[in-house]
Amino acid sequence: MYVKKTSAPRTATLADGSILTIADLPSRGTRWVARRKEIVVNAVAYGILSRDDALRMYDLTEEEFDSWLRAIAKYGRPALKVTSLQRFRQP
Question: 29: closest CA among 60, 2, 52, 62?
Fold first, then answer.
């Protein structure tokens, strides 16, 4: 396996002490669950993946990605679960 040369870091140590790598990124066309959404948001936040690359790679809209960012910042990973959307939405 060959790793594409990039100036971005290949790994990042997250706040909880876990290590995120390029290999941890979900595949294209993935089924979105809270954990995979969190991985993409963290990859962008820690510079492993650029925001534009994430939007293009995963065919996301800016609004969708921004909603993930807001949900994680305010409530954490549980807010990304589809079954919990009503609980965490603003009135």
Answer: 60
Q: Which domain holds residue 69?
A: 11-88
Q: Is the pTM of this model over 0.85?
A: no
Residue linked to tokens 């065919």: 59
pLDDT of the chain along its 91 residues, tens only? 455 566 667 888 888 888 999 999 999 988 999 999 999 999 999 999 999 999 999 999 999 999 999 999 988 888 888 765 556 565 5
The residue whose two tokens read 């589809």 is 82
CATH code at position 37:
1.10.10.10
Which of 3, 9, 1, 79 lies closest to 37, judged by CA? 79
Tokens of 12: 């990042």
Q: CA Rg, the chain, in Å? A: 14
* Domain count within the chain: 1
